[in-house]
Amino acid sequence: EWGYSPTNGPDVWARLFPQAGGARQSPVDICTSIASSDSNLEMKKLTFAYESQSDLRILNTGHGWKVEAPQSGSRLEGGPLGEDIYQLEQFHCHWGETSAEGSEHTVDGRAYAGELHLVHWNTTKYQSFAEAAQHPDGLAVLGVFFDVGNESNDEIEKIVSTLSEIKFKGQFTDIPDVIDPTTFLPSGLGYWTYLGSLTTPPCNECVIWIVYKEPITVTEEQLVQFRCLSACSGEAEEFIVKNYRPPQPLGNRALRECNA
Ligand SMILES: NS(=O)(=O)c1cccc(NC(=O)NCCCCO)c1
Ligand SMILES: [Zn+2]
Fold this sequence. Notes:
Strand 4 (56-60) and strand 5 (65-68) form a beta hairpin. Helices cover 8% and strands 28% of the residues. Strands 2, 4, 5, 7, 9, 10, 11, 12, 13, 14 and 15 form an eleven-stranded mixed sheet that branches. It has a two-stranded parallel ribbon with strand order 1-8. Strands 3-6 form a two-stranded antiparallel ribbon. By secondary structure, it is mainly β. The protein has helices at residues 13-16, 129-132, 154-160, 220-226; strands spanning 29-30, 36-37, 47-49, 56-60, 65-68, 75-77, 86-95, 106-107, 114-122, 139-148, 172-175, 191-196, 207-212, 216-218, 256-258.
């Protein structure tokens, strides 16, 4: 089973998952000097609309936590997404064993303490998430960096408060609180965008990435709780202390920025 250790981690994924060795892989290091500033003339404004939902299911995938949030009423459109409408499917995040690392994307070589992914799929063109993941414009993922600070993030706290119930791989529970995905987004809505892939196997090259420039703040304690999840289903405890893929070559892909 793939993971993040030397024997089953990112360096060997391509053996089992050929797409992992492709030319439009994610994450990437965002070199801010080469980001082409996209005068908003070429790119329409990115707009999103989410519902607030309670009783969302959170599960321990063995690679981290994932909140299933299929929101038929949600819409992500504009920006680099052309004329298509994308719908929220799930959100999850990536972290490291210390807060010196943990994000998947890096900015001029700098890693953040973690990275939240809000995963959407193209409902204009495709009939399901699984189908969309087989096409180059199938998914749109919003990436939000975590900075460590003194204020705990109330929305993240709603996730953290359930983690003791899903300690082991395969366990799931419902989040009693109302979750509004909008609250995960930073106040500054400037972002970078490029064409990439899923950052975990099978690494399908199906993602239009939108990575916000401004991080949100979480506390060290909240990250410590993430690292208490177990990658195993039974007694053996192997904590999920890191679950980020290092940056992959950008190659000749365009990296655009939009200062909303
Ligand atoms: N990390 S990410 O690129 O946002 C992303 C988004 C949606 C799906 C995935 N990866 C997968 O679904 N992989 C299939 C097996 C995962 C088992 O935990 C990764
Ligand atoms: Zn992810």
